[in-house]
Amino acid sequence: MNPVPQAPPAFEDASRLRQQARAAGMDPNYWYAVEEVRRVAPGTVGEVVFWKRSIALFRAEDGSFHAVENRCAHRQIKLSLGDVKGCRLVCAYHGWQYDENGQCVEIPHERYGRGFPKLRLRTYPVKVRYGLVWLFPGDPELAQTHKVPNIPELEGPDRWACVPLVFTWSSHHSMIIDNVSDFSHAHLHRRYRPFDNAQLTRCETVGDNVHVAYDAQVGRGRISGRFVEHDRIDTSHMDLCFEYPYQWSNTDDAIKHWLFVLPIDERTTRVFFLFYFKSLKMPLLPVRIPRFAMEAVLKLSNRLLIAPLLDQDRFAVEAEQVGYERHWDATPVELSPAVQAFQAVTVRKWREHLERETENGHGGA
Fold first, then answer.
1. 274 has a pLDDT exceeding 70
2. Radius of gyration of the chain (CA)
3. At 307, which helix (H) or strand (E)?
């Protein structure tokens, strides 16, 4: 009988960089994308999870978004199982109602001679930007000084078209960051060829950011490459950055993307990809696609080209997750200095968070 494999070590017990990175959470003192705006209709509530912490995200009937810890103070049932009445969140069990400030404001049944209890649940700052709902799970006093990433191309009357792609992958967030920023896995994408012959030309950690650059042949796919203006855009170089906790890339200020990860637990992550292009051309013709038609083109491209490409990444990181859980104690064989830099920042930021929690008397994540 084969012995049952031991589980990977917790963060505090991990001895190697890779083990620590695969057990680390993410610093809650940042804005995290948690949902697409279009997925949350007015008058509805749903659950989002940030690193094992359940949060009820609800949209009032006036269209405003609010977030509150996902439990009724009465019997601890998840409030995401309830419904929304006006600007109040209503528990499915006894109908207790909470306002946007987390205050219990109505108990619709007899209180047996007791006074109205003073109950308030924790709330979380919420913003809407780039078609996404953002939540700040950390210290609310820091929500004003820590900003949602600034993407000027996606704002204003001349904004570039962008249609988010959102998935939930069964993989730790650090594996996903490694994947999207390390171009040594061109073999995985040999059918779609988003990049070829990548040569690492920069790998530099500056504060909490890891800057990476590649000389590569970008956007040379048999179909997708026909939409790229190779005669006007320098597609031989790409800059990337793990701008903790976000990731972005830039090709000649004409082809860009951001990745926002929502860490759920050690083996589950929600991912929000935003790809946007300054221009695209009609295949086989030297004619640009009109700006008004770009969103429709991107929707089609997302479905037929980009989503299948990203599904290859999903396959890889989910397989890596399974492999790591079975062989976490194997000697790491990592050739890329970029991956080691990503993991070092992830580990350092999580350790700093845990130290702050200990200093503040919370004693953990």
1. yes
2. 23
3. helix 307-327
Measured CA to CA, the distance from residue 205 to residue 94 in angstroms comes to: 53
d(CA 365, CA 361): 11
28 prior amide bond cis, ω within 30: no
Distance of alpha carbon 345 from alpha carbon 342, whole angstroms: 5
User: At 198, which amino acid appears?
Assistant: A
Tokens of 90: 């209503």
Q: Is 308 helix (H, G, I), strand (E, B) or coil?
A: helix
Provide the token pair at 151.
């993407």
The Cβ of residue 195 has, within 10 Å, a number of other Cβ atoms equal to 21
Give CA separation, 270 vs 143, 260, 283, in Å.
21, 8, 33
pLDDT of res. 365:
52
Dist. CA 43–CA 309, nearest whole Å: 35
218 beta partners = 195
Write out pLDDT tens, residues 88-131. Answer: 999 999 999 999 999 999 999 988 878 888 899 999 999 999 99
How is residue 215 written in tokens?
A: 């000389």
Domains delineated in the chain:
36-142 (2.102.10.10), 152-348 (3.90.380.10)
